[in-house]
Please model this.
Amino acid sequence: MKNSDQRIVLTGFMGVGKSTIARLLSSMLECERIDLDSFIENSEKRTIAAIIKGEGEARFRRIETENLRRILSRDNAKIVALGGGAWTIEENRRLIKQNELTSVWLESTFEHCWRNISLSKRERPLAKNKSGARALFDDRQKYYCLADWHFVIRPELNSFEIAKKIAEEVFSRKINCNFR
Ligand code: S3P
Model:
């Protein structure tokens, strides 16, 4: 497969910046992107928080897998931003591999993610308190590290620079520094 034909999923913990980086990447590469959480909310006509709080996490995971399957069967979205838990589910990883998408882990420290979670207005029922979120973060590292590519989000790199690195390294596309 040519690098330019690649489709990727972005994974990583809540608050790491998957949706922002997906948005920047799709403008850099001029290609379609899909955000799994938004896709679920549009098809279910309710928020992810409402699904988890109303029907539990297990039911949410089934809905998530069904929607991921639908997204992956469309061939036009080159960039798929997953929710933070999607990659930890074996069936989802299998679907992603079967459909020949490359997985990209946005890796960062817990403190960085927690800061963004705390500043965000978005309700995240699985990260209600810091100690619970930290336990989830620690437990999930073993799944995230199974991804094909790892990009470490360091404080001195902004989202634009990370997206540029992914475009250059994963898609072999040279991005002009004046791009905004
Ligand atoms: C979740 C992450 C959320 C969302 C849901 C569950 C998780 O997405 O899918 O609340 O299990 O980590 P973000 O990673 O975009 O916050």
